[in-house]
Automatic annotation (TrEMBL):
Gene3D superfamilies: 3.30.530.20. This is SRPBCC domain-containing protein. It comes from the Bacteria. The lineage of its organism: Bacteria, Bacillati, Actinomycetota, Actinomycetes, Kitasatosporales. It holds the Pfam family AHSA1. InterPro entries: ASHA1/2-like_C (IPR013538), START-like_dom_sf (IPR023393). Residues 16-146 form the Activator of Hsp90 ATPase homologue 1/2-like C-terminal domain. Belongs to the AHA1 family.
């Protein structure tokens, strides 16, 4: 990446579903667990979501030989247009705010354009690149889940 400093992740995806369904996939434990983590397992009994400003969320990704907990706090919830929340894993310092994730959903007829942004400056360029690959895989799973619904 020619030595430039990487400040985060910016992705745009179009899903073949109305934005209400896409928003629901981000805010309902059963639906979120079905796509978050890509091919990793997210046991529903390890998902908690209090979807309101100040509400907390948490989940555990289970991969062979490891569990990876993630958690954060919702900062903004504007149904069905926008979600802003913090994102931390177990490696983040307790006092650290974590990364800030913003997902914006724009209806385009029967499809939804999702703009995804992750910022925080807590990761190295390599970690952001790996996280971006992870989100891409998660969003592939989200597209599959939305196509089945």
């Amino acid at each position: 990446m020619n030595g430039s400093v990487r400040e985060g992740i910016d992705l745009t995806r179009v899903f073949d579903a109305p934005r209400e369904r896409v928003f629901e996939a981000w805010t309902t434990p059963e639906r979120f667990a079905a796509w978050y983590g890509g091919h990793a397992d997210v046991p529903l009994d390890r998902v908690s979501m209090d979807v309101r400003p100040g509400g907390e969320w948490s989940l555990v990704l289970v991969v062979p030989g490891a569990e990876m907990p993630f958690h954060g706090v919702y900062r903004e919830v504007v149904e069905p247009d926008r979600l802003v929340f913090t994102l931390k894993d177990d490696s983040a310092a307790e006092e650290a705010e974590g990364e800030i994730v913003t997902a914006t959903f724009t209806g385009r007829g029967r499809t939804t354009e999702m703009t995804f942004r992750q910022r925080g400056g807590n990761l190295t360029a390599e970690q952001y690149a790996a996280a971006e690959d992870g989100w891409e895989a998660f969003f592939d799973s989200l597209a599959t889940v939305l196509a089945k619904a």
